[in-house]
Amino acid sequence: MKRKHLSLISAGLVLFFLPGACSIIDEKKGRGDSSIEKRMDDHSKKIETLSLRLARIIEKLEKQEKRLNALKQIRGRKQQGKAKKKYISDTVEKQYKNALNSYYQNQLPQAILKFQSIKNHFPKHELSIKSELWIRFIKKKMAGKKKDLSEKKEYRFSPDQAYNTAVEAYNEKRYNEAMLLFHRFLRDWPDHPHAKQVADWAQDIKRSLKKRKAKKQRPKRRISSIRRYEKKVTKKKKQRVVKQIVVKPDKNKRVSKSADQISGQTSKAKKLYSKGMNAFNNRRYQKARAFFNTLVKKYPRHYLADNALYWAGECLYSQNNFYEAVVTFKEVIKRYPAGNKLPDALLKASFAYLALDDPENARLFLDEVIRKYPNTAASDKAKNKLRSINKRKEKLQDKQPKKGGALQVNFTP
What we know:
Elements: H1 2-31, H2 34-104, H3 108-121, H4 126-146, H5 149-152, H6 159-171, H7 175-188, H8 195-217, H9 225-240, H10 259-281, H11 285-298, H12 305-318, H13 322-335, H14 342-355, H15 359-372, H16 377-399
Helix pairs in contact: 1-2, 2-3, 3-4, 6-7, 7-8, 10-11, 11-12, 12-13, 13-14, 14-15, 15-16
């Protein structure tokens, strides 16, 4: 392109200097110099050739400009096509996801409509084939649901057998099926001696279904945090209570454990304790709690039993299950009053009570730690915690308005 531009510039310069050259020729003609005329003729021929070249270059440039414009248009169309394809693929994927969400939310007719829209608007897309398969699957599912019990089970037998089947359905708590069977019995055998009993059965089922609907529609009462705590504790206690068959040993027979058995039990207990501590240090609290609970159940009189029960409570505390943590720490205090983990259990129970917004019980436990174990690390921690609680209380009392209702205080550890 640079050479072509230079040729154009040179041609322009030639044309610019032509009139001066012509004037010089006129002056020289008067003098009669033939050599100058020849030169001028040569110059004129060169100018003609240059003008022709200029015309050709201009034509080439015009053609190249046309080609470039055509290429730009083609590239623009291609880019538009790619953008359209991306937009179409994104829209199809969104519609497909919405259809799947509606299916998983048991909105089957809406899912079918969405899959059909994908199939109709984007038939050449990959997801159109999947949408067809989904439509067939959902239609089969809806057809299976719409089938009545009469189509599923056609009872073609005597009235006594029909009556017995309906009663069995009622006893198995299939009330809708029992209702249909009783109504069919009354329709087919209205003069049967069991007709009155069947009508009574149908009325009872209607009443029970109405009561269930009313119970579902009733709003649940709000239960306080203390009530919930009591309910959870009672449920856990009921689950733990198991009927055990007690076998009384004979007085003549004396049971005596050997030293090997005792040593084997201690080694097993130590293994369980080490596994539980490893799991606790790796923050696998549920697994650690299982190991500690097995140790307490199998070897309750072992010297590591109180430590295992305490660490089970620590697992619950770290899982933010403060209700059960309080229960386990209290069990440590009751079952092992002479254990080495008693001050730590009292302290952790107070922390759990603070997490449950119960500062009064927390103070009682902290005071016991300070009173019974004065020269220990647990007592120092308890003193610091009491100071922090008192400071918070004083700040809240300063912030309380002189006139009006009192502020609601929530203590947290």
